[in-house]
Amino acid sequence: MSADLIEQVEQSEAQDDLANQSFLITGAHGFIGAWVVKRLLEMSARVVIFDKSDDAHRLRLIMDEDEISRVHLVTGDITEAESLTPIVEEYSVAHIIHLAGLQVPTCKADPRLGALVNVVGTINVFEAARRAGEQIKGIVYASSAAVFGRVDEERPMTERDEAQPTTHYGVFKRCNEGNARVYFLDHGVSSVGLRPLTVYGVGRDFGLTSDPTKAMKAAVVGRPFHIRFGGRTDFQYVADMADVFIRAATSSLTGAHVFNLHGETVSIADVVREIERVLPEARGLITFEDAPLAIPAEMDDTAIRAALGPLPATSLALGVRETIERFRELQREGRLDTSDLDQ
Domain 11-199+236-261+296-312: what homologous superfamily? Predict the structure, then answer.
């Protein structure tokens, strides 16, 4: 059997497995959340979105209205203690993918709000799962490579390395990992926390590590753009990340697991070269700082591969090309929003 046929069979089996299963996605109007919704709908799953906003503009960047109409949307505030339990009951939710959260700039500007959303909101997710008992088959939540903070050693970080976050955001994510462990010890609620690093793709429009994606968009419209960091980083394509979140949410793992995620560790100069390879006319438009990010440049994903098996791994060249091609499609349709390039 050819490799392509094997992949088709595996995709068909995955779709059959998820057909009509109910997933609750918090923060689904965000970047990774939109892609998780897209992939779940492609697998014929039932999708319930819980988000504070009813603005589906990121969904519209990667899906059509017919697809989006299949989603059940519930708006609400994740910091409210009883916000999720009625949803879990009404929609017979079996899997929770928790992505609602505030990013580094907001947590820095307003640590109290950051703690309420990122920590208390996560507690509310686990409380809803605890109350639902065996109805919930799995929880996966977004942690972050920011739990590590600055490191002097140039080597891939493993889950055994000490977490020393240097931002409120990183501290909140580390706190969530600890709380997840206690929920398993006290109540038997199993979960998987995933630590992405520099995720890129259509819909990434906020935060420092959104700059490479913004650079791709700027290149499409012929505008100069300056990436605010340099050096090497673990570059992770959003379609791969969405699939990993779904794989983790539907796994049979027992316990409170936390896994690093890895894509392709490249320099920002390499990213710029790939952009220019796809769009030669953009040569010279994209610049970048010399200073690297204040988090590790590479993550070791040995543990998650041992737990879940082979994971998707889109190359830098293909990921950049697919992202630029989608931006060009949106531009031709008159739907390419460039307001984020001015932020």
Answer: NAD(P)-binding Rossmann-like Domain (3.40.50.720)
Strand 232-237 relative to strand 264-267, pairing: antiparallel
Q: In the beta sheet, which residues pair with residue 302?
A: none
Handedness of CA 82, 91, 13, 26 (dihedral sign): negative
Query: How far, in Å, are 33, 64, 206, 217 from residue 339 at the CA level?
Result: 21, 22, 11, 11
The per-residue pLDDT string of the chain (343 residues; one tens digit each, 9 = 90 and over) reads 444 444 444 444 444 578 879 999 999 999 999 999 999 999 999 999 999 999 999 999 999 999 999 999 999 999 999 999 999 999 999 999 999 999 999 999 999 999 999 999 999 999 999 999 999 998 999 999 999 988 777 899 999 999 999 999 999 999 999 999 999 999 999 999 999 999 999 999 999 999 999 999 999 999 999 999 999 999 999 999 999 999 999 999 999 999 999 999 999 999 999 999 999 999 999 999 999 999 999 999 999 999 999 999 999 999 999 999 999 999 999 999 999 999 7
**Model's pTM, two decimal places?**
0.94
CA of 262: how far to CAs of 195, 198, 312, in Å?
A: 9, 10, 10
Q: Provide the residue ranges of all domains of the chain, joining segments of one domain with +.
A: 11-199+236-261+296-312
- Pairwise CA distance, residues 265 & 232, whole Å: 7
> In degrees, to the nearest 5, what angle opens at C-alpha 85 toward C-alphas 144 and 188?
60
Report the distance separating Cα 32 and Cα 141, nearest Å: 12
**Strand order of the sheet with strand 72-75?**
72-75, 46-51, 22-26, 95-98, 138-142, 191-195, 256-260
Contact 254, 190 (CB under 8 A): yes
- What's the CA gap between 317 and 270, in Å, rounded? 10
Distance of alpha carbon 33 from the chain centroid: 6
DSSP state string for 187-221: H---EEEEE--EEESTT--SSGGGHHHHHHHHHHH
Structure tokens given for 327: 């931006």
